[in-house]
Give the backbone structure.
Amino acid sequence: MLFHRLDVDTTGVVLFGEDPALNAPITEMFRSREMNKTYWAVVDGVWLDSWRSVRTFIKKAGSSRWENVPKGRGGDPGETQFRLLSTNREKSWIEAKPLTGRTHQIRLHCLERGHAILGDRLYGRANAAGIPMALHARRLEFKHPLTGRDVRVEAVAPAYWQEHWLRGLKAPSAP
């Protein structure tokens, strides 16, 4: 069973289940936000270190688009915590932790700050070389529903990230 999905062009961790006894508990963990997700993104321009959280209301705006809307305009609340990992004059590498699970949430919250994710064909500019968007599901963390042990699943960013998206950015220091 597939427990969650990633947007087209997003790379990284996807969780599948093999044991039917775990399907309901893991599905509930995603629904109740007990599944901690961490993403990496590279955005256009300079992301300010002080931008630690973005809260908006998100509403469907067409067949495949969503948008940030003012409170009271029919959107559902969305919140993402951010941490700046590295920046230069052209782009910024950020970590994003969605606290809610709205469609395109991280992409829209980056737009709310005026910094589209690089290569985002829907909300920014597609990469001329056809390189997928700079959004990567880096990590999932949760307590195993049967054993209670901490589980941490990580995915290394694809090689083209280093060659393309992270070029010119320094490796981040530990939090």
